[in-house]
């Protein structure tokens, strides 16, 4: 692997302009607990790649969504494998973001000057939950439908603005094809875009401020 990287560097000159990013001091008490965020980022990349492959065959239509998922699982070559990667990467992403958050709290890495980075990290967790919720409806089966029905109904219980939030989330009074299109748009476009921006800000601040040394 080292020879391959050296060969690429001789052609593209990667190391020289990014030397300050690639070579930086690390805390003495660094352990595998500091890799939890990196694992979460790797899972995010798996979600992006597997999601792109699934989008080739998925049809976000009230009449075709369920059948397209069945076709992906049973007929498309390795479709079941790609879908499994997407499903487990989504679940593990939330697990590792939570573990990463716990590590930050225990090591008190949220203290100044890293309080803004803490807020950005918390927002990534919210986006991850929203992505999981919107993606749950896309198979368009009974379980997904009723889970979305119950989940979106919670927005309607908020005083004063509940009705408007319910219409905003569902695209109408009921969960139907409009809701499916709205969730699909959020899941494949807006939420990944927001996640990408937050991750860029997160990594940028880590690069500028360095890795917290712990307690």
Features:
globular, mainly alpha, 9 helices, Cytochrome Bc1 Complex, Chain C, 215 residues
Explained architecture:
It is a single chain. The protein is mostly helical. It is built from 9 helices and no strands. It starts with a helix and ends in a 6-residue tail after the last helix.
First CA to last CA: what distance? 35 Å
N-to-C SSE series? HHHHHHHHH
Q: Give the mean pLDDT.
A: 89
Structural classification: mainly alpha
Q: Which fold does the CATH topology refer to?
A: Cytochrome Bc1 Complex, Chain C
Low-confidence stretches: none
Which bin fits the share of residues in helices?
over 70%
In percent, how much strand structure appears in the residues?
Answer: under 5%
Can you tell me the CATH class? Mainly Alpha
The total tally of domains equals 1
Apparent shape = globular
CATH architecture: Up-down Bundle
In angstroms, what is the radius of gyration?
A: 21 Å
Total number of helices: 9
CATH superfamily: Cytochrome Bc1 Complex, Chain C
């Amino acid at each position: 692997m080292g020879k391959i990287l050296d060969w690429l560097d001789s052609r593209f000159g990667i190391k020289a302009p990014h030397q300050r990013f690639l070579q930086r001091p690390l805390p003495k008490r660094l352990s595998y607990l500091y890799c939890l965020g990196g694992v979460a980022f790797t899972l995010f990349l798996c979600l992006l790649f597997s999601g792109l492959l699934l989008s080739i065959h998925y049809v976000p239509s009230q009449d075709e969504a369920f059948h397209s998922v069945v076709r992906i699982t049973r007929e498309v070559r390795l479709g079941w494998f790609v879908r499994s990667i997407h499903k487990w990467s989504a679940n593990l992403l939330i697990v590792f973001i939570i573990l990463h958050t716990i590590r930050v709290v225990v090591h008190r890495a949220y203290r100044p000057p890293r309080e803004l980075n803490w807020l950005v990290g918390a927002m990534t967790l919210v986006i991850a939950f929203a992505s999981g919720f919107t993606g749950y409806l896309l198979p368009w089966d009974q379980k997904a439908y009723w889970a979305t029905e119950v989940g979106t109904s919670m927005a309607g219980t908020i005083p004063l603005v509940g009705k408007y939030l319910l219409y905003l989330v569902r695209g109408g009074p009921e969960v139907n094809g409009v809701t499916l299109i709205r969730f699909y748009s959020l899941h494949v476009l807006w939420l990944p875009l927001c996640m990408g921006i937050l991750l860029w800000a997160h990594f940028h601040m880590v690069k500028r401020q360095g890795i917290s040394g712990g307690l």
